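Adenosine deaminase domain-containing protein: structure tokens wanted.
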Amino acid sequence: QEFCQQIPKVELHAHLNGSLSNKTIKKLLDRRRDLKISTAAFEKGEQRTMGDCFEMFKVIHSLVDSTEVIYEVTKDVIEEFSADGVKYLELRSTPKGLVESGMDKRRYMDAVVGAIRDYKHDNDDVIDVKFLPSIDRGRSIKDAQENLKLAEEYSISCEDIVTGIDFSGNPYTTDAAKFMPVLQGAQRVGLKSAVHLSEVKDRSDETRMFLSVPPDRIGHGTFLTDEEDVKSSVLESRIPIEVCVSSNIASNTSPPEHIKHHSVWWMGQEHPCVVCTDDKGVFSTGLSSEYFIIANALSLSEEQTLKLSESAIDFIFADENMKAKLKQIWKESKKDEV
Ligand code: 5GP
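Answer:
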């Protein structure tokens, strides 16, 4: 565990509001006693279903209701990842508007980008952070198109921070085909895409459709191996899979035994996989803990674990200069090991 803490790491699948720590949530709850929020879903621990997890997001969203709070929690989350040894972080979040606090989607974007810039400036460049605006499949196509437009605009005005999009939201919605033009549009304007895929059972048609775009990274991919043609096409494509073990177990989409997690099969095929947290707050985890779980499940040596964390650099949504900067950090850390 200590070794996993010490090594440099890359986090590529972290939803901003799902990453809020207990400390941050408690701070917000104390401030907003007037909301009389029920914390039942938080208290269920391991008994939580995926439905409970989405209930928790509703609670968190009612607390994160202004640009000031977005700015503050973004900095908190970056600080916590940095303290866990993360050197490069891609945060994803769904831009939201709220009439009551005067927050609109543009202000939401500005608050996240501002927090990223200020954190980097105030903390001597200890961590590099990008922002992927999310498209929520539980919302309308109009909402998705607005988010894509914002992502495109910010990828020009803040090209050092906004480099791609995320496609997420409740995976039980069945009309995801309507978002195909949005994913194709993102690709057309040069935005990278990380797409949640095969996260729940029996989504093979949807998976085939999204794979035809194709995405630049796959989120979860829990049931990709259910159909032979899907499995072979992903293997052939070499599209990296973002692996979130604790999240899958907590939301009951993977068996509780780590060794049975689907990523063990994919890594056995030497398919590119990146260890991630998903929602470190909601699932009470951290990136070091996720590395520890994978290293144990695969009986990896320290050297192999470090190699796994280094391999993530190849899949970041950033340019070659950033990759070279990160490779240098890993090189230095290998020197420290000997
Ligand atoms: P936010 O976008 O508000 O910063 O982060 C929370 C949102 O991320 C949730 O409302 C949901 O749309 C998305 N999200 C977080 N975790 C998951 C997950 O495991 N699967 C899917 N499909 N979406 C998720």
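The beta strands are 9-15, 86-93, 128-136, 164-168, 192-197, 217-220, 241-243, 273-275. DSSP finds 15 helices and eight strands in the chain.

Cheers.
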